[in-house]
Write a structure and sequence with these properties.
Blueprint: H1 16-45, E1 54-56, E2 62-64, E3 69-71, H2 73-95, H3 99-135
Helix pairs in contact: 1-2, 2-3
């Protein structure tokens, strides 16, 4: 009944599909932990609950203090993607509209906001240049 490094007595561990499934489940668990932290942090930013401590570890992973676990930036990104997808799906289902009709205006708003911020940054750069010219 001993377990060897390459597999168990029933042979499951040596099967590539089992290993891939285990890796997928571990990734999903980490993404869920990241999502919990994202939602908790966002709620705290809006005045509900307490802001959890998040630190960057020397290897680049994030330490989620409230969950006592480390996650990668990729896991946080995937968790955020899944959260946004769930929001888009919920709005689309609730309104009876296709996802594109929900996501399109949202993206347009984000792109417009980005353009406005970029214009503000360009104006700030021009003001900085003018101040430097005045100082010279």
């Amino acid at each position: 009944m001993g377990t060897e490094a390459h597999g168990s007595s029933d042979g499951r561990r040596g099967v590539p599909g089992w290993v891939a499934d285990l890796a997928r489940r571990r990734r999903q668990a980490s993404e869920l932990r990241s999502a919990i932290s994202l939602v908790g942090s966002a709620a705290a930013d809006l005045g509900w609950g307490t802001r959890p401590d998040v630190r960057v570890l020397p290897d680049g992973r994030l330490w989620l203090d409230e969950l006592e676990t480390a996650v990668t930036a990729a896991e946080v990104y995937q968790a955020a993607r899944h959260l946004v997808a769930a929001q888009l799906r919920a709005v689309a289902e609730t309104t009876g509209r296709p996802v594109g009709e929900v996501a399109g205006p949202w993206l347009l708003t984000l792109h417009t906001n980005e353009a406005m911020v970029s214009l503000d940054l360009a104006d700030d750069d021009l003001e900085d240049d003018a101040l430097e010219d005045d100082a010279a």
